[in-house]
Amino acid sequence: MESVDGAARTLPSIGRLSRGPPFGRAYGRFGLSPSGRLLPPAPLSQENADPQRTAFLLRKQWTLYSVTPLYRFSNAQLRDYARLLSAFIAAEKQKGLAVEVGVELDIKVAVSSLPDLKGSDQDQAAILVQLSSRSPASPKNSEEKLIWSGWFCCVSEDDLSENVPEDFTCLPLFLANGAESYTSIVGSWFQKTFDCCFRRLAISPLHLSWMAAMWTGCKVDKTACAMELVFSVPRLPQPLDISYAIHPEDAKALWDTVQKTPGEITQEEVDVFMDCLYSHFHRHFKIHLSATKLVKVSTAIASAHCDGIIKFLQSQYLTGVLMLLTELAISQIQ
Amino acid sequence: MDETVAEYIRRTVLKIPRDEIKTMLQKWGFLSETQLQTINFHQIKENISQDVVQLCEENSADIKQAAVLDIIYNHIYPNKRVWSVYQMNKTGEETEFFDLTDFKKKFKRRLRSALKNVTINFREYEDNAIWIRIAWGTPYTKPNQYKTSYVVYHSQTPYVFVSVSVLKSNLPLLCQALVVASNYHDIREMELRSHSLNSLKDIVFKRYSQNFQTYYPRPLQERNVAPETDLRIIQENKNEKERIERVNREVFGDGPQPKLEFAQYKLETMFKSDPEMDVLDKKEPFRCLVKFSSPHLLESLKSLAPAGMADAPLSPLLTCIPQKARNYFKIREKKGVFPGSFVSP
Q1: How close does chain A come to B316, measured CA to CA in Å?
Q2: Which residue in A235, A242, A276 is closest to B292 by CB distance?
Q3: In chain B, which end has fewer C-beta atoms inside a 10 angstrom radius, N or C?
């Protein structure tokens, strides 16, 4: 696969920023170079998008994967794919790779498109795969229970397709919710059918601290929940976990004094923000949080875990967070 | 035998690890040795419990006996529950003679006067510990044997260990009954909670080895210690490492630490920063909530400084936990002479 041109993507040029739509309606960009200057996620002014349609994505735990471009994927064949995937799952169960011990479940596959989830018009629309089950014992039109969901998406301001050969579809981010065994089966089918590769997307402490800083600065309407950082110190004789939760108003007040230029965030500012929090902690407990591992960040916008698990909490910032995750996925692929 | 009693006994037996069932039933003493001999303790637990229920049926077990089995289970596995600590106060210095019968009578009477539907059971143990099991009902429903509270009272002390489980609304009534029955004046909840009942006892009864701030005798320097096998290995910061070890020992004491799983600090102190940094300078507190958790918190904290993750000595906010007998704190800025020092109210 042709590697996407990293430099042009990660370092926004000033010219590009000024050419874009006015800030209030701009989708934020999240390049992640060390000295990178980024835009914080702006609240999405959704003209056409209906937050109700994506509401089902909120408050669920999604496991993240990076996916290499799919070969010969077509938006027009979603129904066929559903049929083929369904047959594949049935075959796997026949083989004895039963996913559910005991009750024989009748699994139905639905593949659909989520046009609202993209960064720009050139992005691929997100593709949603849902597995529902109906126990064969229950009547034909009884309710189906959703047992697994997974969706591919690409939320980026750039046109990634210009760097990718023809016949390839760029959907670098995959999010799954449900049993690992189903994720594995669905993943295998996609890998076989479209010659792509899935990899768990880990989030480094560096990226987590970016998220903490960025999301703390976001305006939220309702009374927000605390900004929480979770640290882990596993290598002690007795492991230790530290949860450090800050009142969201106080955290935002701190961040607002740290962030000097509106519309931009620098690595330095993130470092200062984190150092302030670390030193406040050290003042009280004499413990160096910087020597521990940051494993989870939770704000009113979203929560992210270093194992590559995300939870979206605000629909207006959904696209902003997805943009960041898409960037992470792309850098993992390269 | 009542259906509910049978089911309750069955579920209690299922909780017990299979290898322990026979011993516990023997402790219980409700089934005779001959009866116990008829049970095959090597079959699956599901079947063992059915056999036990069958035998209890023969002996016409009632809820009282079933409750005793539950107490025995919880006495051997107290760490399955979360325990809080309460301290009672009395005016006057006289230590009255503790009359167990009187205590039980007054306790039951006080509880029952307010709530008819309760099951109350007592069991005494060698270390002067009185275990009380209470199953709560409502004015209109029978006691729910699965919604129980446990109280462990050491009659020679003012301390009571309580595991409430679900119905927190019954707590005031429970406290009242305890105070009345034990002839104390009032009772207050300490900010101390843990799964490990024995550790809580260690802390309040001061049974752990405490650090002595005044004098710590240095061990004799052994001059002829066997040298490092490889002379190319040099211990950097040897003095610092030794200082950390020494300070750690002074602060934590030598012996094993009481076992707590968490400590929580509600911080309402000011945010102070390097004036050069030009950051937040508010007049209001910087509100935080910090939670430490670990399978063995104090041992974990003790190992932080030697691991290089913390300064030695560690903050008194953490090291005071056993002495202050608390693991929930609210920290506010101390006003006055020494800025940057803390009080916990």
Answers
A1: 8
A2: A242
A3: C
